[in-house]
Amino acid sequence: MINPAWPWGCTPPRHAQFTERKRTATRTCYTTPRLPATPYTTSSQDDEVTLAFGHVTLDGVPIEGSPSGETLLDDALARATRPPEAEAERYVGRGVLGEGGMGEVRLYQDLQIGRQVAMKVMLPGRASEPSARARFLREAIIQGQLEHPSIVPVHEIGETASGDPYFTMKRIRGETLSDIVAAFRRGDAESIGRYPERRLLTGFAQACLAVDFAHSRGVVHRDLKPSNVMLGDFGEVYVLDWGVARVLGSSEGGVLDSELIPAVGTAVGTVLGTPGYIAPEQIRSSAEVDGRADVYALGAILFEILTRKALHRFDKPHVMLTETLAGTDPAARAKAVGAKVDPELMSLIVQATRLDPDERFQTARELHDAIQRYLDGHQQAERRRRMAAVHSVAARDAQRKAREGGRDANQWYRWAMREAGLALALDPQNQGALDVIMKLLVEPPKELPPEARKALARHRMKVSRVGARAIALARFSWALYVPLLIWMGIRSPGFAVLLFGFAFAAGFVQYWVASQTDSTQRMRRVAAFLNLLSIAPMTFAFGPFWMTPLIVLASLPSSILYLDGLGRRLAGFAASLAILVPAALEWSGVLPRSYVFEDGRLQVIPQMMSFESPLAVQITLVVLCLGAVFTSIRLVGGVRDQLEETEERLHRQAWQLQQLVPQPGDYEGSVTSSILDFDDDFLTMPGVGVTGTGAIVPPRRP
Question: Hey, where are the domains in the chain?
């Protein structure tokens, strides 16, 4: 049977008396079974009323009106403390929720209110120990005075019929961070889905506020760890187990009613807390720590949330304590366990777990604010990613319509580039936009856009001018052969004038067309046609089937390279006429024959040359043949150089465009990513690349 009497039994201890506004109030202790606890006192600024059964005084003066001194107030109190029959059994057991080293947490149904409560009852074997009993009650009173949504409220303190202390609390439901991290380590898909990183960080930030509230009341938890932080089923966050908390006195800045909190002595050399989470200064002296020790523990908890591993390797307690005193390097630890942590979060962990308390966050609220800033930025990043997804879909649709062709294909192509660019500006790692950009680069529109068409026309004009000028200069170079022809002997000066006149006239026309910035394709065709026809008089020098075809073949490639389809056909037709027309004129008898066949021998009888000097003929023929070869190389080579330059420029531009499009994995290790690899050379991030002792880690050299 539960006896809800005063938590400390019938004899009020020293801390059962307290002073408020320098006025003293007395209490009377009762042990009537199942009686609800009576109020200690009621007071106001001006008057203080002392309540006791059967007697009421106002500043020590009895209130008149009843022979026995009883008043209506006495009757009301008597009725309030006299339990009706239905309240004889207030709590009905529903099971055991858990058990610790000092007490057992049971589930009860509160029949007075109709709710379930958690009742922590001290184990019978420990209740007889004064220090253990005082520590148990200390936890209940501290927790009860810390009224905060993330600290479990205490409803009642009392004793069982056997004298074991207990206190009832709000029944909470949820999972501790320790259970969640353990589930993550097992790869529990359900837990991973229920607790995304954002929810864990949000809950952690709420826990930081609860700890900061306790600090503002002068209470240092001293045993923060994942198992003492619980996430409720409906967004609640609770900081549990205030059994080893340090309470600062009023002279130290504490605001709790410390006279109600039992004093518990701690032996010299005793370390309070859990190895792996307690701060270095807490190891040296648990009685001297302040709120920054809890900040250290919060940093260790944050590390475990993000990496699924403890900040300190699980080992023998004295080894863990030694490592804590030596200082820790969270970045190196994360890398050792193969965990990827956002550099911004890692910098917060590094600062929270500094060896020197003065270098840490000075309050838990500062850590909360830093986490909140990260979450706000992360929320904006999520929003940008959602917007990028919308633009990516639009880019994909526009690209599909551009590939279908039609009158608006170029507009769709431009729209696809715009939408993909917006998507990448919002989220450089958006895979859909990256795919669209790459396809747009390698699959240009079927119809050349007007701007590109104009640029192409300008480039072709440049190449045409180069080829046309080369052909014109080749015709002018015929003047170099005049001395050789004279050396061979000129039989008909009229034919010589006709030959060079046609060549120079064609060269002038070709050069003039090449010099015009607004020359048309038709003009270029006519110039090439005349240029090739100008070779026909070469028949007068060596006949139609000897040197003339060689000169035609040497000049034809350069004309073909810079002409369009119709121009190439006209050039081929002109080259054919330059060979066939003189031959046909000889066959028809219009011109004298250049070749005579006698006794199986071919005799060349040119109309223009006399061939008086065999040496001159041989040298001239060699020079003409070599000239045709090198002229062809020069004509075609000039155009080829332009094409190679254009090809190189196009590849260079294509490479530059590809650099504008991020490739998958390009942002690995960048601060724009939410989950990144962490290296020692991240010295640009605040706190990163610095060990827990404050020593800077030098960057790796390439």
Answer: 2-87, 173-362, 384-447, 454-651
